[in-house]
Specification:
By secondary structure, the protein is mainly beta. It has one domain: Porin. It has a 16-stranded antiparallel β-barrel. A two-stranded antiparallel sheet has the order 15-16.
Length: about 450
């Protein structure tokens, strides 16, 4: 049977995955030492029967790990149409049509903090080479085929159960999904991950684990996906100060039985996010909540359900006074309008546990994402439109729907393979019209080798 499956797997590339890890550590314990991606990947690969044997370097305690992520993507009814400038950029990481892709060659070097609650220090560096890297660029590290995903030093102060700090560049606290492909329930990243939240921050983050039930984090960072802050006052907003920073935090609640958790996170930029959320001059905030649940009444806990909800607000998504485009005579409030976006995603993963079927798991995702009309919306088509009466208004709001089904096979050691079908339906258009709908189908074949 296994030899037959290997032959089939080489034709229909598919993958193994699991869901976000939920650690169960006795109290008292130090705060978590690894990033969300690291914890997820370790647990998920092990759940799929994939061994995680990180290489220890010549210097004791420093480990080397990573993966090689490759794929083939084919998009029906449009060659990458969801990633063009004229349509909503609904996709990241899987934007190519009829293409073989080297998505990522990831290398991570880490010295983790010890389990013992004591004065200690370490570091982590994550680099990504390949097509995924261009989506991880920022002001300090421009868009290239090589990206610095994370680079931070971490240290612990043994106060209470231990306060852990990360100082440098690290991944965001928001979102059910993560940058690392093998840590997600599906190969393609969802609408919320791509459009509703940031990916990385640079700054200082503190984490404290109260007990096995509660833990929280709080930090001050340069902003969204930026390693160099830019305050609105530097861009000509005379009514703004030069704070130019963003606040972020998370509160996580684990169930007593360890089979469920809910994480609530936020980012808040008092002076906006110039160049990230339009060319704005108002406050920007996002509230994010996600959770997992493994029903205990099912034998072997084969089924995992997850959800993610995001609500974002941009206080002024237009351009500053004096910067109104030449040729437009609309009132200034059009260029200083607020913008709101929100969405929900539902996840399901079933892992077969019997000896004959333990190599198979199936995952599904359903999403909805909305963005209000604005001159420079968080995502979607920017600009102005003219109604039938001749009134100049921002482009219409957009509603996006996406459905994804993924089949996952764990056949070879350390190799994750998967095949995926995704359907996207974008509704949006000019004011005063019935709007238009863009539909796209995608088939993806994916193989990831982790080490």
């Amino acid at each position: 049977m296994k030899s037959i499956l290997k032959g089939l797997g080489s034709v229909a590339i598919a993958g193994a995955l699991a869901t976000t890890a939920m650690a169960q550590t006795p109290t008292p314990t130090p705060a978590p030492t690894d990033s969300k991606q690291v914890q997820d990947m370790k647990k998920q690969l092990q759940d799929q029967g994939i061994s995680v044997n990180y290489v220890e370097t010549a210097q004791k305690g420093i480990t080397l790990s990573g993966y090689v992520d490759t794929s083939y993507t084919y998009q029906f009814a449009g060659a990458g149409e969801y990633a063009t400038s004229t349509k909503a950029a609904l996709r990241q990481f899987d934007t190519y049509n009829n293409n073989f892709n080297v998505n990522a060659v990831k290398i991570a070097l880490q010295k983790a903090l010890p389990d013992k609650n004591e004065w200690a220090a370490g570091f982590r560096i994550d680099t990504i080479y390949g097509s995924d890297a261009k989506y991880l660029s920022d002001k300090t590290f421009p868009s290239t085929s090589l990206a610095l995903e994370q680079a931070y030093v971490n240290f612990r102060a043994p106060v209470g159960n231990g306060i852990d700090f990360q100082f440098g560049k690290f991944v965001t606290l928001l979102g059910y999904e993560v940058i690392e492909s093998p840590s997600n329930p599906n190969f393609s990243r969802g609408l919320l991950f791509t459009n509703a939240i940031p990916l990385t921050h640079t700054g200082l983050l503190a984490a404290y684990k109260v007990n096995s039930t509660f833990d929280f984090k709080f930090g001050i960072v340069d902003g969204w996906n930026n390693s160099q802050s830019t305050s609105p006052s530097e861009l000509g907003y005379s009514d703004k100060t030069s704070f130019g920073k963003c606040l972020t935090g998370q509160f996580n609640l684990n169930s007593a039985g360890g089979n469920a958790n809910i994480a609530q996170s936020f980012v808040y930029s008092p002076e906006g996010e110039p160049g990230v959320v339009g060319v704005d001059n108002g406050p920007v905030a996002v509230y994010d909540i996600w959770g997992n649940w493994k029903p205990l009444f099912l034998k072997d806990q084969n089924w995992t359900l997850g959800f993610n909800v995001d609500f974002g607000y941009n206080g002024a998504s237009g351009v500053p006074a004096g910067g109104v485009p030449v040729g437009f005579t609309a009132p200034n409030d059009i260029y200083h309008d607020s913008n709101t976006w929100y969405g929900v995603a539902l996840y399901s993963l079933y892992q077969f546990k019997s000896d004959d079927w333990k190599w198979l798991s199936v995952a599904g995702r359903a999403e909805y994402l909305h963005s209000d009309a604005a001159y420079l919306p968080k995502y979607g088509v920017p600009g102005l439109d003219t109604t039938a009466s001749g009134t100049i208004v921002p482009w219409g709001s957009q509603d996006d729907y996406s459905y994804t089904a993924t089949a996952n096979f764990a056949i070879w050691d350390n190799l994750l393979t998967r095949v995926e079908y995704r359907f996207d339906d974008l509704h949006g258009g000019a004011q005063g019209t019935t709007g238009k709908a863009d539909i796209q189908h995608e088939i993806s074949l994916n193989a990831v080798y982790s080490f």
